[in-house]
Amino acid sequence: MTPTSSVSSTAAANTNTSKAATAIAPTDASNAVTESARTNAIQAVATAASDTANGGTSTSHPKNKGLNDGEVAGVAIGCLIAGLIIGAIIGWLIFRSKGQHRYARQRRRSEDRGRLVDHPREANAVPLGISGDPMKLENIILQPTPDQDILSGLRRLEDIIRQHVETVYHLKPVDVEEKALARALADAGYSGSRSGIDFETVAGWCIETDTRCGALRHVLSNILFSAIDWNTPGPLTLLPKSAVAFMSSIRRNEKHRDNFDVMSFAWTRWRTLSALFMHPAPQERTPLEVSEPDIRDQGEALAEALDPVLHYFVAPDDESQHQQGDHLRLMIIETAQLGYTLFSHTSDWRFLYKDRSAKRRPVVCVGLEKLNGLDGHRFSSPQRIVEPHLIS
So where does this one cross the membrane (predicted)? Predict the structure, then answer.
């Protein structure tokens, strides 16, 4: 069919449509159909005309009817299967990645445990985070006082005790019974088990004028050094009160006989760290020093305990009484300073209070032994630093 004939057909169809509409239009309202019926008829005629006009091209461009229900269901099932496969692959990759991380952490922990076993003395090394440099406790705890300086401090305290006795106490006869003085010695903290000499014997030496100086030096040495003895602190201690209170609340090392060396090392390490925390300027790493306000209460308690023994040998005048009290307080502070020095030391020390020979002579200044090295490990046998000073 030619384009001209197609246009003519279209025009004829439009003319027929117009005539049909005129024929259908009602002339009398009572014999006509409803308005909706007329509208439907016009639309039907127009559709027929349009189909006639386009009839020549309908065979070359067939209408696309889309996918049927079966094809849509097949596509949906295929997408579902593909999604499941992709999800399974992603889940497997995530699980594999977590497994690798877990294995790496376990391997690092195993390596760390291996290093601790192979290098037990480096167990205190702690990473510094940003810098990565190892930080050891030996590099931050307080520096230990050299043995020679400790020995000098011991000798200085011995001289102070000697000067105190020779300057303050008289050599006149005293009106006191031996038993009463023996009870006063026990109440003041004197220990016969430490010295190896019973109370009555020491009391008799103090009463006799020719043995009084040596006996009083022996009594003061026994009581003062026991007040700074970390191994056996008593109620009249001059050591840091918080540390002594903690020590009294836990088990003693002697109860850990199956693991004594390890517990001794841990105990020494705790003591040195406590001294570090108590230090007013720990970055200086100097030995812990005592100040008079820190031990005022402890010093007064010790002086009051000593007074029932010593007042018998002090002149009754006020000047002598004040001199004795002032000098006694200074001697107590000097004793506490030596105690703080040993408390902050990295080694453990032991005082020697008695004469080990058969003569059992009184000790006027204790001896001193070192029990372990600077690294905290205990010696197989103690190192004797100085022998006890005995009355000749």
Answer: 72-95
pTM: 0.65
Q: Which residues contact 197 (CB under 8 A, 6 or more apart)?
A: 354, 360, 362
12 part of a folded domain: no
Judge whether 238 lies within some domain.
yes
Q: Cα 219 to the chain's mean position, in Å?
A: 43
Specify the long-range contacts of residues 290-298, CB closer than 8 Å, at least 24 apart: 290/333, 290/336, 290/337, 290/339, 290/340, 292/333, 294/240, 295/238, 295/332, 295/333, 295/336, 298/236, 298/237, 298/238, 298/241, 298/336
Domain span holding position 306: 147-390
How many structural domains does the chain have? 1
Handedness of CA 218, 221, 222, 224 (dihedral sign): positive
Residue 100 maps to a domain? no
Is 307 part of a structural domain of the chain?
A: yes
